[in-house]
Amino acid sequence: MGLNTSRRWNRFMKYSPLTLLMLPGLAYLLINNYMPMFGMFIAFKNINYSKGILGSDWIGFKNFEYLFKTSDAFIITRNTILYNATFIIIGTILAIVFAILLNEVRKKVLSRFYQSVIVLPHLISFVVVGYLAYAAFSMETGFMNKTILPLLGIEEISWYTEPKYWPYILTLVHLWKSIGFSCIIYLASIISIDSEYYEAATLDGANKWQQIRAITIPLITPVIVMLTLLGIGRIFYSDFGLFYQVPMNTGMIADTTNVIDTYVYKGLMISGDIGMASAAGVYQSIVGFVLVLLANYVVRKINRENALF
Amino acid sequence: MKKKMGWTSLLLALILTLSACSGSGSNKDNGAVNSDSNGESSEGSEKPYEVVYAYPTFDNVPVDIQLVQDEINEISKAKINVTVKLMPISNSAYGNQINLMMSSGEKMDMFAMLGNYNTQVSKGMLHPIGDIMEENAQGIIDALGPDYYNATKVDGVSFGVPSIRDLAQDYGFVMRKDLADKYSIDFSQIKTFDDYGKLFQVLKSNEPDMVSAANASGGSILGTYRTYDQLGNELGVLLNNGLDDLKVVNWFASDEYENMVRKLREWYLDGYLLKDAATTPESTQAVLKSGKAAGYFSQMKPGFESQEGRIVGQDMVAVRTVSPVAKTDTVTNVALGVSAKSENPEKTLQFLNLMYTDKEIVNLIDWGIEGKHYVKADGQDIVIRYPEGVTGDNVSYKNYGWMHGNQFLSYVFEGDEPDVYVNMDTFNKSASKSKALGFTFNGDPVKNEIAASNAVLDQYKRVLESGAVDVDKVLPEFLKKLTGAGIDKIIAEKQNQLDKWAASNSAE
Description:
The complex is a heterodimer.
Chain A: H1 2-14, H2 16-34, E1 45-46, E2 57-58, H3 72-104, H4 108-119, H5 126-137, H6 143-152, H7 166-191, H8 195-203, H9 208-233, H10 240-245, H11 254-257, H12 260-268, H13 274-302
Antiparallel strand pairs in A: 1-2
Helix pairs in contact in A: 3-7, 3-9, 4-7, 9-13
Chain B: H1 2-44, E1 49-57, H2 65-80, E2 82-90, H3 91-104, E3 110-114, H4 117-122, H5 133-144, H6 146-150, E4 153-154, E5 157-158, E6 161-162, E7 169-176, H7 177-182, H8 196-206, E8 211-214, H9 255-269, H10 284-289, E9 293-300, H11 304-312, E10 316-326, H12 328-332, E11 334-338, H13 345-357, H14 359-367, E12 375-376, E13 383-385, E14 412-413, H15 420-430, E15 432-433, H16 447-464, H17 471-485, H18 487-507
């Protein structure tokens, strides 16, 4: 026992410089992610500033009620999950496709150029993206209504009052904006694959498609699993910028554009009740947490090595 | 040796992190100690109390704010031994900042509220200044007059005071004067909401490329045009501006509302209204400037035409179809209050009193320093203009007279009618008063229902009131969702509070 401890201690000392390297990251996590968890109790309080946050009255689950109050509760939950699921599935597939294609571009200059073009939208603020979309879909001056649709001989469409178009528009905008970033992560892991595998495969007469299926995909599977799990963990959060700025907060299309985050914002913008806002946050993180555990459990059942923990 | 170093630094890092965690706590203690010593010294001897005054700004922080503050302090130190620290906060961040300052215990004594007086009261942000008003700020009560002062009372105590400006509102349509003259429009023909259709028809037939009405910035065509007393939040209102009775009803389910949105739909289909009204992020005035629209509905006040005319850059003319009326909301719209966390509410209130009674302080806050930021117009006592070489764009101090205390003590800027404040005073005094003037709704017991209903309003109100959708289809849907969100519960609660308020009022 004593011997065991001292050996462990020695090993720990041997790697202590590496452990030290971890410190800044740990400190960041502690300050940014763990300390705010203390605030979870705000969701169960009726905040009164003259009594102070700790001294305010406990009110149980009352702050959570408004989330489930109306028929909208179902709509916003459905929208949030469906949109995010779509984003995860299509986003992952497209990002991998782009990464593989980029990897096949042999000219350095061209490859860099394509990468930059794909990543560029990621750097544009959603406020600007919202206006770009408005420039396309506006009734009076929109590019779609004034240029594209007349060319095709189609009647003008009142985009901002027709809910049915928005799932496509939002998915398109999301993919356009986010694909570049995840594509780069996949590209990085593809580049790090040892080229000997491909050489051996070429000698055995495997074509490109077979190489991709038998070498590239299996070797980047851990990265795919990790990114997907992270995505699932945030399935209950939605990109506020996308769902608030791009539809220009228009009421008539709320059935297909309202998600939990925008609903909370619209409901509390006037009263600014921090208890109710925290309640929404707590609800989202707990469901996200459970989903990550579940997804990881499923992955572990299928293939232990690919699981996160 | 090397390894030991590693461990000590690890330990050091841990200690640092821990002390960072506890940092906020110990700071607070220090603050408390400081404030105690402050309080003692101000009682006994010379040390003046510093009032921190937070307010929203729609512009950059003025360059010369420190200079102006110094001038104010000279006067206030001599009069009540108080200095002030002006703290303008960008309007977009204002609400959050106030919340943060309150919860973190940052020093703030006094703050301005734009349209959220009753929520701030129910959140416990405000000191009940009514209790210490008479001793410290009788001047404010005198300047406001009993009716308007009483309008701020919640459960018999005032938590804040409105700035003195237009405390009542009338409602109507404002449009470009050149068009009105060109087609010799007879405004006396327009008496009701429906009559606007005739005006719009004339405009449309003469100017086919232009719509008659634009939407209010970020709102609907109807915008701030109101014929009801909204009692704090529009969820449960008194019809006819509260002049008839105290029966709380659902405005959106009323016949009047249905008629209005039907009319708006009609006008939309006739091409009288801006097609993009339900979505456009552009400001009303920008739309008018671009020549796309002729006018818009709005709440009004004396001098409204010239105010809007300056922003649009053209002469404007207005027609009013709802006569002036004072409601709790029109009064507490812009209010000033003492923070619940203020260390010295008495001194703070005394400074606030100066903002309602001291002409010099009011003009310093509103306009800056004479000779530097403004000069008196030739031969005029109360009319001012910018000094040579200074314009509205480059003046190094700017503020908002309607926010800071008693605007009627403020100078009039050249171009406005010199007697604009006299007119406004008459307007305030002669306006009819809603029967519920003075009633402030406490939404706390039904806050879940309010949040849910607000989300519904956000979804339907703007499109319906812009005529952009089919009323037959959308209005019933809207009402159904409102009922689902619990508007009836809000209305019942409001009626209950209103009845109690009325009973205690008549008892007094």
